[in-house]
Structures are given as structure tokens and as C-alpha cells.
Specification:
By secondary structure, the protein is mainly beta. The protein contains no helices and eleven strands.
């Protein structure tokens, strides 16, 4: 399955962005049965978990740094997930990646995710 993330850009602190991630390819439909997530990698930093959502959207999890500001959602019919980011801060600046897990429930562990998108840049200016 191929994943493509888009929707990044330059925004001022306090602003909002909505990221999207679409699955394509012959096996795109398989992601509807798996958890999916968003990770990010800031300049000079390791890739970190941002948010995850279960296969049916019934369970979500967030890192402490984004909880209350970001919302993850999914559209199983269209094999897509989204990340609504509000109250953005300069420290949210990073390349954001979407990923599909090998499990039905989300995990913050990098190794649980087997398919990755190419990333989309989010830059928050102060």
C-alpha cells in the first residue's frame, strides 16, 4: 500500500492546519482494518509519535505535547486519515508522516507501523 500525506505548509503560531493522508494501490483497502497514525520529525530530532487511531475510529491516542490541540480522524470508506492541528506552536515544526500499523489498535511504538508515507512539511513561525 502507498500512503501519501499532504496539507502541510507555513503558518503563524496560534494558527491551524489540516493534514490528510490517502492510501492507494491494490492493497489500499487493507488499511481500513488497521490502526493508523501520525508521526513527526523535527530538525535534529528523532521521529516521534503524534497521534493514532484504531481501525474503526473508536479509539484514539495522542502524545502529551499535542493532546487537546490536535485531533486525528479517519474515513474508512476512502482509506484516509486526517490530523486537525490547532493552536500550533513553533515547536510543532516538523515533517509529518502518516503510517499504517500492523495492529487494529494504535500504538506509539514506531515498530508497530509497517507502511509509511513520504511526509509533509509543517512550519510554524513565531
Amino acid at each position: 500500500v502507498q500512503l501519501q500525506a499532504f496539507g502541510g505548509g507555513l503558518v503563524q503560531a496560534g494558527g491551524s492546519l489540516r493534514l490528510s493522508c490517502a492510501a492507494s494501490g491494490r492493497t489500499a483497502r487493507t488499511v481500513s482494518n488497521n490502526a493508523m497514525g501520525w508521526f513527526r520529525q523535527g530538525p535534529g530530532k528523532e521521529r516521534e509519535f503524534v497521534a493514532g487511531i484504531s481501525w474503526n475510529g473508536g479509539s484514539t491516542s495522542y502524545s502529551s505535547s499535542v493532546k487537546g490541540r490536535f485531533t486525528i480522524s479517519r474515513d474508512r470508506a476512502n482509506n484516509a486519515i486526517y490530523l486537525q492541528m490547532n493552536s500550533l506552536k513553533p515547536e510543532d515544526t516538523a515533517v509529518y508522516y502518516c503510517a499504517a500499523a500492523r495492529t487494529a489498535v494504535p500504538s506509539s511504538e514506531y515498530n508497530y507501523y509497517t507502511s509509511w508515507g513520504q511526509g509533509t512539511q509543517v512550519t510554524v513561525s513565531s
